[in-house]
Amino acid sequence: MPRYILVRETASTNSYTTRMAAMLPSGTVIHTPRQTAGRGQRGNSWEMEPDKNLAFSYLLKNPAVAPAEQFYISEAASLAVVDALSDILPGVTVKWPNDIYYGDRKLAGMLIEHSLTSTKISQTIIGIGLNVNQQKFISDAPNPVSLSQITGREHDLTELLHAICNRIEEYTAFERYDAEAFAALHSRYMAHLYRHDGAMHPFALPGGEQIEASIADVHRDGILTLRHADGTMHDYAFKEVAFVI
C-alpha cells in the first residue's frame, strides 16, 4: 500500500520529494493542500487554490523499466488517473504525453522526473496536479477545468488521492520486464489518447507553422508519430509539436 505523508504547505511536491527521496521507501506519496509554486511541463506553473485540489508526488524506486522505455511509466500514471476518474466522469482522455483532458479542457497535469543511468532508472517521481473543487481560475492557463465545474458537486480529496495512488501502485508493479504486460498497457493508453480517432487535427510546429495530421502511434520512448495529410509519417519529440485547441 502507498505510504502517505501530508505536508501542510510546500512550493512543489516534486521538489520536496527529491530532497527527501533518499530517506523514503518506494511507494511514498507526498501530498499538500497548499502548493505555492507547482511545476508543470514546458516550464509552466500550476495554479492551485488552497484546500481545493490535489497536488502530490509518488516516489517509485528501481522500476523494472529500461531508460529507453521510460514512457511506460508515464502511460501507467496517466491510466491510473483515468481509471480513478472513470466512475465519476466517463470520457476522460490523455493528451500526449500525459495531460488529463475532458473534452478540450485540462483536468490534470503531470511532471515525471527520472534519476537514471545508461542502464537503469534508479528512481522516478510522478508529480500530479488535479483540479478538483476549484471554481475559478485566474492564471493565463488557456483551458483549465475542474471536476466540480463539470459535475456540479464537490468531491472528496482524500478519496480521490487514494484511488489514484492505489492504481499507480498496481500499474507500476514491474518486478521484471514483461513485454506482454507492457504491450497491454500501451494498448490501453492508445485507446484513451486524446484525438486518437483517425481524423485530421491541427498541430503547431515550433516556428509557428500549422499542419493537419492524425495520430498514428506513440513509441516506447514517448516519441509521437503523426500521419500528415499527404500520407507521410513523421516523428516528433516533446516540444517539437503542439496540439492546436
Can you give keywords for this protein?
single chain, 14 strands, alpha+beta, globular, seven-stranded mixed sheet
Overall form: globular
Which percent range fits the helix content?
Answer: 10-25%
SS elements, strand count: 14
Identify low-pLDDT runs. none
Find the structural class using helix and strand composition. Answer: alpha+beta
Roughly what fraction of the amino acids lie in strands? 25-35%
Distance between the termini: 38 Å
What does this structure look like?
Helices cover 23% and strands 31% of the residues. The mean pLDDT is 94. The longest helix is centred in the N-terminal third of the chain and has 15 residues, at 71-85. Strands 1-2-5-9-8-7-6 form a seven-stranded mixed beta sheet, with helices on both faces. A five-stranded antiparallel beta sheet has the order 13-12-11-10-14, with no helix packed on it. A two-stranded antiparallel sheet has the order 3-4. The protein has helices at 13-20, 71-85, 147-151, 157-171, 179-191; strands at 3-6, 28-32, 38-39, 45-46, 54-61, 92-95, 99-102, 105-116, 121-130, 201-204, 210-218, 224-228, 233-236, 242-243. It is globular and about 55 Å long. The protein has five helices and 14 strands. The protein has 245 residues and is an alpha+beta fold.
Write the layout of secondary structure elements.
Elements (H helix, E strand, L loop, with lengths): L2 E4 L6 H8 L7 E5 L5 E2 L5 E2 L7 E8 L9 H15 L6 E4 L3 E4 L2 E12 L4 E10 L16 H5 L5 H15 L7 H13 L9 E4 L5 E9 L5 E5 L4 E4 L5 E2 L2
Parallel strand pairs: 1-2
Antiparallel strand pairs: 2-5, 3-4, 5-9, 6-7, 7-8, 8-9, 10-11, 10-14, 11-12, 12-13
Helix pairs in contact: 2-4, 2-5
